[in-house]
Specification:
Blueprint (H helix, E strand, L loop, with lengths): L17 E4 L15 E8 L1 E6 L5 E6 L3 E7 L1 E2 L7 E7 L1
Antiparallel strand pairs: 1-7, 2-5, 2-7, 3-4, 3-6
Length: 90
C-alpha cells in the first residue's frame, strides 16, 4: 500500500480498516508491511517512544486504553513502557 499520507491534504477522512499488533523495535519499522499508521491504540498505558512519518522522534505518556492519533512509522523499544500496542491502518 505504501504511505497513506502521500498526496493527502491536511485533513484525513475515512475509517481505520485494520489494527496491526506492534512489537517495539529500535531499528526496524514495525507498524505493518509498507504502512505508516495514522495512530496507535495502547491497551496498557505508559511511555510510547516512536518515529513519525517525517522521521521525527517523539515520546509521550498515555493512559490505559488510549488512542494516540499521530503518524507513526516505528514504535521504539527503548523508551517504550506501554504495552498492548496496535497500529491503526487506513
Amino acid at each position: 500500500m505504501g504511505n497513506p499520507f502521500k498526496g493527502v491534504g491536511s485533513h484525513l477522512h475515512g475509517m481505520v480498516y485494520d489494527l496491526y499488533p506492534v512489537t517495539p523495535n529500535d531499528s526496524t519499522d514495525n507498524v505493518g508491511t509498507d504502512n505508516v499508521a495514522v495512530g496507535l491504540y495502547i491497551e496498557t498505558g505508559g511511555d510510547v517512544a516512536f518515529i513519525t512519518k517525517d522521521g521525527d522522534a517523539r515520546t509521550v505518556t498515555v493512559p490505559d486504553t488510549f488512542y494516540l492519533v499521530c503518524s507513526v512509522e516505528r514504535v521504539k523499544s527503548t523508551g517504550t513502557t506501554a504495552s498492548g500496542i496496535h497500529a491503526l491502518i487506513v
